[in-house]
Amino acid sequence: MGLDRRGFVKIVVGGVAGTLFTPVIWQSLDDVSIWSQNWPWIPRLNKGEVKSKAALSKLCPSGCAVKVKTVGGLPFAVAGNAANPMSKGGVCPVCAAGAQLMYSPARVQSPMKKVGEGKFEAIKWEDAEALLVEKLTALKGQDGKIAAISGDETGTANEVISALLAGLGNSGTYMMPGEKFVAEKGVKLMGGSGQPGFDIAGADLVLMIGADALDSWGATVANQKAFAATRPTGGVATAKFVYAGPVLNSSAAVSDKFLPVPPTATAAFALGLANQLISAGAVSSAPDFAEYKALAAKYTAEEVEKATGLKPETMKELAAMIKAAKAPLVIAGASFGQGAGALDFVAGASLNVLLGRVGSGMTLLPAAPKAIASSSVSEKDAASFLANVATGKAAVGALLVYEANPAYALPQAGDMAKALGNIAFKVSFSTYMDETAALCDLILPAPHPYERFDDAMNPYGVAKPTYLAGKPVVKKPVADCKDPVDVLLGAAGKLGLSLGFETYADVIKAKAAALGADFDALTAGGIWNGEAKGASLNLGASALAKAAPAKADDKTLALAPVCKLAYGSATLATPPANLLTVRDTELSGKDLFVQMNAATAKKVGVAEGAKVKLSAGSGEMKARVHLNEGVAPGTVAVLLGFGRSAWDEFTKGKGDNVYKILTVSDEAGTGLKVWAGSTVTVAKV
Amino acid sequence: MEEKKQCKGCGGALPFVIGFVAAVIAGWVLFPNLLYSKKVQPIRFSHKIHQEQGMECSGCHAFRDDGSYAGLPNNDKCMECHSDVVGSDPAEKLYVEEYAKKGKEVPWLIYQYQPDNVIFSHKAHESFECKSCHLELEKSDTPPVYYENRLSGYSKQTMKMWQCERCHAENGVSNACHVCHK
Ligand code: SF4
């Protein structure tokens, strides 16, 4: 008996027919339908209870109390904290992307040691900490050999860093430049002391000179809430806002009036306004009023027009608006939050003195009590320090970089990055692989704000002493990181120093106790407020008299860097979600657009879309031109935050970095390093 | 030619029947065994013992305040009793040492595991008995074997869309996409 072809076919047909009566085909088809949802590369949702936890979101030094939404213990979204009296339920686009940033591919996953140009290897924490201690031990007791740069204006971490350096016989803790540093110097020039504050909520007219108070200046979210409160839905606005600055930016866009003023002419604008107010009858009991009046008289409407392009009638109208206001307030600052001179601040603040608004509109905050008595930060900022390193005036052996990105976010950034090369051992305490971390010898990853204890004392701009604190909302960070302050306190112990604390949480508790604040209430999203001190200021006339008039020439344009907080900050590249909000007229492909008005473009011989090179000092950058009538005459506006060489695939290599072409000069009369009034040459390529 | 015509075993319906029967047996007996791999739960969790301690199902499988369903308890819940070893069962010891003390959640195998694109509300199905969809585990001392489909990666008990749709249709509930897929 054998099986022939026909028999075999019959068996197969029988088999196929039989299969139809089994689950094989039907079950397989059914399974295939859901198989596609189970491919291993499809991201999986984290399941679990959805909670909303209070946190201090410090993605910029201001720090805002927020609610972090978690599922199964992991953050997935951020919302404002309505119970917090400062941010009042608001959150800006950076922290709104805060949960996403926790999982950024740019995060440093573990301690890294440099093993070659641009090459790092992951090392264990114990080895990384031992290396740090070894390097610091070698330089202990040699003043000037160890330095630190901090980019956190408000954290008590600075006290720990500076106390550690002091214990090692060094005094060089330098802050990244910001408004606070310059404003405090300005207050001194006006015969006062302390950090100035501005009560936007209590004003019925807010004149912002340069300061982008509704987007990137000061405690942004609190400012925006104060603004919003004056615009009740369907009701009449209860306060007027005027923006006088180089670009029709986010603050200008929502203000009642925008006055285009080049960044080189803000002091002239303020003194021209003072002249108008004095002519209209304003007087001050300040001891230097006569001197001030004589100085302001030089800033006639014609002179102001020459410097700013503003017509005399415009200045008159503004003066009339201010006179009619019951509680006017003037806020002066750089349009991008750094690099302005103390005299720019004084010129603006003197208007508050003239209007009798010191103590009510413009306040002065008393010095906050310290958690560590031996701490003190340097009188100079990081830009001055690195300039000294570049020239060899400062011979530093070890540098600690805390929450700062000096290789990217200082004027003449290229030179600053080179200066870092003169320092033998550099440590970066950073959450992300930023441009400075990429140049360091050791990277000690810091936790993301939702993974750590942190605090914010007197964010610049607040009208009364203010303290916020936060604790981790997750049980464990998603990367192998440690709190930098815990690492430094541990190192201090191994170096034989006792700073009195073992963890940053303890330091913050001590700070809260020194203020009389309740730590638990703070970390639950609360706030501590003190009282501003009563003070009188003079008009700063003798300092202002030394101000050098801005030099104008036909070959250069005033450079106005524009900061849009949504696109990131000095320490943070644009959050990936926010890249979608960058306009085609700001960035197209890899080309950044610089903006100028049509008359300026004609003057430099360029048209819409033209490729240009901007140069100043030893730096240059490439871009294309977009015509925008919202830019002041003789000014080129350039967005900050682009041209990243580190970070991640989302931000790297897009556009160019404007910090490269900011040039530093010495402010006449104060000797401060300034760069807000930088000028550049624009050439077609 | 003559010989072939005379091949008896190859004629008639017999080969067809043989193929048919073989396929039916393979399809009903071999195929399910080949299709599913068998897995056991990482911890031999006894519902029986917990019930004997007087615990209610809802003590661990409860609705949260927002109406979402907690499903399986996590370490926080288990550690209310088992932060340290309290009994003599090796399974408990394993849980405490390998999970509770290490802060690691137990990777329980979910018999009714659904893909992420399905939004299933237990609240909306509250009137049904648990066993309408789930295995009856309340008396089990050892959790049943978990059968994982080698093709799709899902559990054998995972409810398919046609089953959801049938029940919705029978109960007059909408079968629009957005009802289950957001
Ligand atoms: S101002 Fe914006 S970026 Fe800064 S802390 Fe507040 S929400 Fe975050």
Sheet having the most strands of chain A: 7 strands, mixed
CATH architect. name of the largest domain in chain A: 3-Layer(aba) Sandwich
Strand content of chain A: 15-25%
Per the principal axes of the C-alpha atoms, what is the gross shape of chain B? globular
Radius of gyration of chain A: 29 Å
Count of discrete alpha- or pi-helical segments spanning 4 or more residues of chain B: 7
**What's the count of strands of chain B?**
2
Mean pLDDT of chain B: 91
First CA to last CA of chain A: what distance?
91 Å
Mean pLDDT reading of chain A = 94
CATH topology of the largest domain in chain A, by name, is Dimethylsulfoxide Reductase, domain 2
Strand content of chain B: under 5%
Q: What do these coordinates show?
A:
The complex is a heterodimer of chains A (685) and B (182). Chain A is of the alpha/beta class. Chain A has five domains: 5-35; 50-102, N-terminal domain of TfIIb, CATH 2.20.25; 124-172 and 369-457 and 482-509, Rossmann fold (3-Layer(aba) Sandwich), CATH 3.40.50.740; 180-365, 3-Layer(aba) Sandwich (Dimethylsulfoxide Reductase, domain 2); 553-684, Barwin-like endoglucanases (Beta Barrel). Chain A is built from 22 helices and 28 strands. In chain A, the strands form seven sheets. Chain A has a seven-stranded mixed beta sheet, with helices on one face. Chain A has a seven-stranded mixed beta sheet with strand order 21-22-24-23-28-20-25. In chain A, strand 26 (665-666) and strand 27 (673-674) form a beta hairpin. In chain A, helix 7 packs across helix 14, helix 10 packs across helix 11 (289-297) and helix 10 packs parallel to helix 14 (342-354). Chain A is globular, with a radius of gyration of 29 Å. The model of chain A has no long low-confidence stretch (mean pLDDT 94). In chain B, 36% of the residues lie in helices and 4% in strands. Chain B is built from seven helices and two strands. In chain B, strands 1-2 form a two-stranded antiparallel ribbon. In chain B, helix 4 (75-82) packs across helix 5 (90-100). The radius of gyration of chain B is 24 Å and the shape is globular. At the A-B interface, helix 1 and helix 2 of A face helix 2 of B. Iron/sulfur cluster (SF4) binds next to helix 3 and helix 8 of chain A.
